[in-house]
């Protein structure tokens, strides 16, 4: 099952406090992740601060269309987390 991000608060610079539906919470620094066409504009701290939680996809998003996969964010707080495939009924 995918982690579901429920809350996010800008903490300054490129840091964000996150809280997931299962109660896992903490602060992550995303500065090293801000590269490439979509993320480069977020190096402007004012634009980075425009972050929000999209409740349809349960993750962190920005007005320019940038987002991080919820499992990536969760793994920043729980390094041993791995996404496990769900088996369909009758699978071995």
Characterise this structure.
There is one protein chain. The protein has two helices and five strands, in the order βββαββα. The mean pLDDT is 92. Helix content is 13%, strand content 27%. The relative contact order is 0.21. It has a three-stranded antiparallel sheet with strand order 1-2-3, with helices on one face. The chain has a two-stranded antiparallel ribbon with strand order 4-5. It has helices at 45-48, 70-77, and strands at 5-12, 15-20, 25-29, 52-54, 59-61. The chain has 92 residues and is α+β, with helices and mostly antiparallel strands. The two termini are 19 Å apart. β4 and β5 form a beta hairpin.
- Strand line-up of the largest beta sheet: 1-2-3
| CA distance, first residue to last residue | 19 Å
Order of helices and strands: EEEHEEH
Q: Main beta sheet: strand number and arrangement?
A: 3 strands, antiparallel
Strand share of the residues?
Answer: 25-35%
Low-pLDDT stretches are none
Shape: globular
Helix content: 10-25%
Q: Which oligomerization state do the chains in this entry correspond to?
A: single chain
Q: How big is the Rg?
A: 14 Å
Secondary-structure-based class equals: alpha+beta
**Count of DSSP strands:** 5
Put simply, the count of helices is: 2
Overall average pLDDT: 92
